[in-house]
Amino acid sequence: MLAIMDACPISDKYMMTNTACKQIAATARMTPSWLCRVWCLSIVVVLGLFMTSSIVNAHDINGNLTVIANGFKTDTGHAIARLYIPGSQVTRKGQLEISALIKNGQSSFLFPALPAGDYAVVVFHDANDNGTVDHNFWGFPAEALGFSNGFKVSLFSGMPDFEKLRFTHANSAQTIQLTVE
Fold first, then answer.
1. Cβ atoms within 10 A of the Cβ of 163, count?
2. What radius of gyration do the chain's Cα atoms show?
3. Distances (CA, A) of 28 to 7, 35, 86
4. Same domain flag for 48 and 67
5. Could you tell me which of 123, 124, 103 has the C-alpha nearest to residue 111?
6. pTM above 0.90?
């Protein structure tokens, strides 16, 4: 037994003296190899708990974004919300797109577990369900549009772009409202 205790695997790895390793083993009435197994198992359990809490905390970094759009004149067709990231052209398809029903002139969209950062949202009334914003003869949108950051299309505001629609999404749940006109 003395030969086993002199070669204690814990003492070398964790800077314990052979005497300390022998005292722990004697107190616990275990051989050093059994003590090593218990030590390794407890390390695995502690690391497992740490990794589980890290995964939970990583999920907390992302928060849900809810977009509530109102002002729809009719409930026909669908409402479509497009989410954009910095550098995107907001007159094209977004990085994420969600379609929802319109009820009583209002529609809501949920972008789940969205990472914190800057975004822009465009919502439009797809009355004919073709999935695109229709335009009239002069090139103006023929379907109602709503924009994040309170942006409204006018002669003075110009065309929408990411910077004009930008808002910051935090790492918690957030709701933004916009009006479709």
1. 11
2. 30
3. 18, 8, 61
4. no
5. 123
6. no
55 φ, ψ to 5°? -65, -40
What rounded mean pLDDT belongs to the chain?
81
Mean pLDDT of 97-119: 96
- pLDDT, tens digit, for every residue of 40-54? 566 655 555 555 444
Q: Which residues contact 143 (CB under 8 A, 6 or more apart)?
A: 124, 125, 126, 127, 133, 134
Give me the amino acid identity at 133. Answer: V
Alpha helical stretches, state H, the chain: 2-6, 9-13, 18-28, 32-60, 162-165
Amino acid sitting at position 121: V
Estimate to the nearest angstrom the gap between the alpha carbon of 86 and the chain centroid.
16
Q: Give the per-residue pLDDT at 70.
A: 97
Name the residue with tokens 């107190």.
27
Residues 6 and 37 placed together within one structural domain of the fold: yes
Tell me: do 33 and 109 sit in the same domain: no
What's the whole-number mean pLDDT along residues 68-72?
97
| pLDDT given for residue 138 in this prediction | 87
Number of domains in the chain: 2
Distance CA 16, CA 124 (A): 68
Q: What does the DSSP 8-state code read for residue 135? A: B
* C-beta separation of 44 from 93 below 8 A: no
CATH of the domain at 165: 2.60.40.10
